[in-house]
From TrEMBL:
Main location: membrane
Keywords: Heme, Iron, Membrane, Metal-binding, Monooxygenase, Oxidoreductase, Transmembrane, Transmembrane helix
Signal peptide (UniProt feature, chain positions): none
Protein name per Swiss-Prot or TrEMBL: Cytochrome P450
Cofactor: heme
Lineage: superkingdom: Eukaryota
GO cellular component, one term: membrane
Family designation: Belongs to the cytochrome P450 family.
Sites where the protein binds heme: C123
Organism: Meripilus lineatus
């Protein structure tokens, strides 16, 4: 959210509207937070946690888009490439949670379900993983502001979006400020 303060603010405004600013979110609030839901899906799409799919072995000769794929070949889906397909996601390099909102507010683009894999070997923990990321995002955005650090002259030092190239591609370390949004937010955190 450090990189996208306008998206952070919009999600926080929605959280404040639904929660009244005096409690933490729960799963019962999820349906009332459509923009936060879009932030979740865009986060998963914009940089998939697992950039490449799990290898699959082709059990019989196949043809795909005119390409012959011999039996016993290993196929590895490029999830990142799929999530950046301009035919599916307009402006795919941009972080645009609104893309998942229905028309006319958004673009009604499809959810990036492929981030959890494909076919019979789709991630069995996808619902648990998605729910955990959602509740963590909801709680963090309810009580904290995320902002860039400042240099000696008070100028924002925006971090770069850099990720490790590995089977799992987490972000590289970066500096940011994390501060309570208000005295009430501080109290909510202290009560945990």
């Amino acid at each position: 959210m450090v990189l996208f303060p306008d998206k952070q603010r919009k999600a926080q405004d929605e959280l404040d509207r639904v929660l009244g600013g005096d409690r933490l979110p729960s799963f019962e609030d999820r349906e009332s937070l459509p923009y936060l839901e879009c932030v979740l899906w865009e986060t998963l799409r914009w940089h998939p946690v697992v950039p490449l799919g799990v290898p699959h072995r082709v059990s019989e000769d196949d043809t795909y888009c005119g390409y012959h794929i011999p039996k016993n070949s290993t196929i590895i889906a490029n999830t990142t490439c799929i999530m950046m397909d301009e035919a599916v996601y307009k402006e795919p390099s941009d972080f645009l949670p609104e893309r998942f909102l229905p028309l006319p507010e958004g673009r009604d683009e499809p959810r990036p379900n492929a981030v959890f894999g494909y076919g019979r070997r789709i991630c069995p923990g996808r619902y648990l993983g998605e729910a955990n990321v959602w509740i963590a995002m909801a709680n963090l955005l309810t009580v904290f502001n995320f902002s860039p650090t400042k240099d000696a002259n008070g100028i924002d030092q925006m971090p770069k979006a850099e990720f490790y190239d590995a089977f799992v591609g987490p972000p590289k370390p970066f500096y940011c400020n994390i501060s309570p949004r208000s005295p009430l937010a501080r109290t909510l955190v202290e009560q945990l």
